[in-house]
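Structure (tokenized):
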């Protein structure tokens, strides 16, 4: 089987701003929610049988206690923020495994789900659907891969090395050195992508850097902790929990609430083709 893990936060942002461009700034209350549901439905129509979606139920996480500049919900548009809980409720009603994260982030959930799924010998491949470079650290050979929906690219271990100049295991070190503006930490002054890749190729992880490497080692290790995803969250007991068996009886009311009359019949057409195991 192939397990599909979806970055629900990214998808919600993508559909929110995509819809806004199409409607010239007029936001439908649950327009982004409907967009994500149709994206998941498209995956099911394409043959996906096992999937889960991670969301940032609360934007802030334990990382905010480590670094004051780490990303927060400040500045997020109210119309977008108001769609997180409805999305989580709708996905659950849709019969899809969903992980609303509070102390951890959606990225941590994806990392944990990837580890749990890859541990099952029945799983042929794990696809992590997000362009977020943090998730590159989870890639393993061609069995755990990252899929960028925008470009259509599938990034395996060779692809990670090609893009960043380091293997997946060193992505947290790489991000610690170059920084991540989206997450709110600056990296080490004077260290760009080429220099970071060169240093890591020469010395290995930041912990192994010699004293004369010319960087603030303590600060670099702090940023590495920010960049390192938690991969041991107990999200589910086995991949069978990710099998889609069709929408729940609660879904029609949820679909009516978000004002989308197309998603329920779309799911009804494909649900009978998903036999329960």
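Design, position by position:
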């Amino acid at each position: 089987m192939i397990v599909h893990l979806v970055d629900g936060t990214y998808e919600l942002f993508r559909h929110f701003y995509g819809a806004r461009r199409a409607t010239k700034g007029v936001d439908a209350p649950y327009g982004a929610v409907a967009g994500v549901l149709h994206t998941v439905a498209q995956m099911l129509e394409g043959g996906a049988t096992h999937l889960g979606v991670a969301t940032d139920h609360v934007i802030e996480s334990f990382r905010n206690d480590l670094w004051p500049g780490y990303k927060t919900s400040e500045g997020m548009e109210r119309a977008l923020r108001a769609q997180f809980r409805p999305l989580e409720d709708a996905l659950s009603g849709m019969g899809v495994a969903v992980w609303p994260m509070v102390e951890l982030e959606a990225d941590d959930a994806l990392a944990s789900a990837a580890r749990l799924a890859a541990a099952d010998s029945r799983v042929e491949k794990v696809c992590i659907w997000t362009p977020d470079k943090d998730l590159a650290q989870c890639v393993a050979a061609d069995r755990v891969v990252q899929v960028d929906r925008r470009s259509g690219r599938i990034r395996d271990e060779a692809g990670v090395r090609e893009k960043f100049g380091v293997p997946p295991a060193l992505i947290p070190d790489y991000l610690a050195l170059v920084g991540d503006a989206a997450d709110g930490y600056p990296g080490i002054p004077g260290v760009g992508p080429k220099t970071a890749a060169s240093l890591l190729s020469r010395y290995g992880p930041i912990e192994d850097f010699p004293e004369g490497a010319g960087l603030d080692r303590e600060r670099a290790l702090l940023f590495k902790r920010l960049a390192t995803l938690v991969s041991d969250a107990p999200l589910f007991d086995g991949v069978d929990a990710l099998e889609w068996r069709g929408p729940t009886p609660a879904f029609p009311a949820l679909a009516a609430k978000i004002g989308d009359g197309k998603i329920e019949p779309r799911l009804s057409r494909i649900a009978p083709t998903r036999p329960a195991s």
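Reviewer-requested clarification: The mean pLDDT is 93. The chain has two domains: 2-157+231-273, 163-227.
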